[in-house]
Specification:
Blueprint: H1 4-22, H2 24-34, E1 46-52, E2 58-64, E3 71-76, H3 84-88, H4 101-111, E4 115-120, E5 124-126, E6 130-132, H5 154-176, H6 189-196, E7 201-206, H7 210-223, H8 227-234, E8 236-242, H9 257-265, E9 269-274, H10 276-279, H11 285-300, E10 305-309, H12 318-327
Parallel strand pairs: 3-4, 3-7, 7-8, 8-9, 9-10
Antiparallel strand pairs: 1-2, 2-4, 5-6
Helix pairs in contact: 1-2, 5-6, 7-9
The protein binds 2-acetamido-2-deoxy-beta-D-glucopyranose.
2-acetamido-2-deoxy-beta-D-glucopyranose is lined by residues 269, 304, 306.
Protein name: UPF0565 protein C2orf69 homolog
InterPro entries: C2orf69_mit
Signal peptide: 1-19
């Protein structure tokens, strides 16, 4: 399709764009890592592409990590966040392109250097802006269309499959990094699969992405009789709610006491980080109220929870909302 010289130029151009996209330090780290033995090399974050969950449901996933990782960090982004080329092509969202999905994956891999990072890309973006996950029941703006009633654990069943399939996708590659003495012998791919599928899990929701974490809570009751979900949920050790918010009129934070009591049984450590952008929004005053109730009721039912208010003395801004991703 292209003459050979054009291909060479294209490849050169792609290489040149790397420092701009990933930042100078990442480029330098990558240059260094290629000179090191594979056991200590940190793999750059990259798009895994489409990962299948249920036969008709799938999500694109971004992955970072090397085989020394000891747990999984699963991140659900908010509105606006997309691949950088989509953000650059959008009139408004280009202003926030530094928070593109791969850049956030890089941030997370620095924040959690001993973890596998999985960024779950929303299945579609209404008006290229409002994220929606196909495993949640949401309207076109991606707002949850349900209340705080317990419900069948569709999202949990789906996420378990998605994460297992994503892990299997990278495990053979991790297996190739194995050298000498290792918990998994070099010729046993299934061992690496099993190791990955048993590691602890941290869920991180940011902004609109927090609706996935909320959904998990509403599904816990009906997940109780399902053995594979109990096994999956037992691996969840920590959950981060980062400045949760959506366009709906309530249930931005979970306040239902029965739901929170179910959650307490899991003994998950919870970290809440908020900024004035959401919790001081006078037009959506319920967000701040619900957030305070969420934390208060979690404490009441015995959940180990921390709450951090960032940029409290600064005016509300979308910029500080995004910056919670570097501050938490
Ligand atoms: C509570 O969570 C913190 C992490 O934020 C952890 O270090 C601590 O051990 C936990 N405490 C209990 C009692 O589980």
């Amino acid at each position: 399709m292209f003459p050979r010289w054009a291909v060479t130029v294209l490849v050169a151009l792609r290489t040149l764009t790397v420092p701009r996209r990933w930042g100078g330090t990442m480029a330098a780290e990558r240059a260094m890592s290629s000179a090191q033995p594979p056991t200590t090399a940190s793999l750059p974050c990259r798009r895994l592409g489409v990962v299948q969950g249920f036969p008709a449901w799938q999500n694109e996933v971004i992955f970072c990590g090397n085989r020394e990782a000891q747990d999984h960090v699963v991140f659900f982004p908010g509105d606006v966040q997309d691949y950088i080329e989509n953000m650059e092509a959008h009139r408004d969202n280009k202003n926030w392109k530094q928070w593109n999905l791969e850049a956030v994956a890089e941030l997370l891999s620095r924040r959690f250097p001993r973890s596998f990072i999985w960024v779950i890309k929303p299945s579609h973006m209404h008006l290229k802006t409002f994220s929606c996950y196909n495993f949640l029941v949401c309207n076109t703006m991606g707002t949850p269309e349900y209340g705080d009633e317990p419900r069948y654990p569709n999202a949990l069943l789906y996420l378990r499959l998605l994460l297992n399939n994503a892990a299997r996708q990278v495990s053979s590659e991790l297996q190739q990094q194995v050298e000498g003495q290792d918990s998994c012998p070099a010729d046993q791919n299934s061992c690496q699969d099993e190791r990955l599928l048993s590691l602890p899990i941290t869920f991180v929701g940011f902004s609109k992405g927090c609706i996935v974490l909320n959904e998990i809570l509403f599904e816990l009751q009906e997940a109780k009789p399902i053995p594979e979900l109990q096994e999956f949920l037992a691996r969840v050790k920590t959950m981060y709610w980062l400045d949760g918010g959506h366009q709906g009129g309530s249930n931005t934070w979970v306040t239902n006491e029965a739901t929170l009591r179910n959650f307490a049984e899991l003994q998950v450590d919870v970290h809440v980080h908020v900024t004035p952008y959401q919790v001081n929004d006078a037009m959506r005053a319920w967000i701040g109220k619900e957030e305070r109730l969420f934390v208060k009721r979690l404490k009441k039912v015995g959940v180990n929870v921390t709450e951090t208010r960032h940029f409290e003395n600064e005016p509300r801004s979308l910029e500080n909302h995004f910056k919670v991703l570097t501050a938490f």
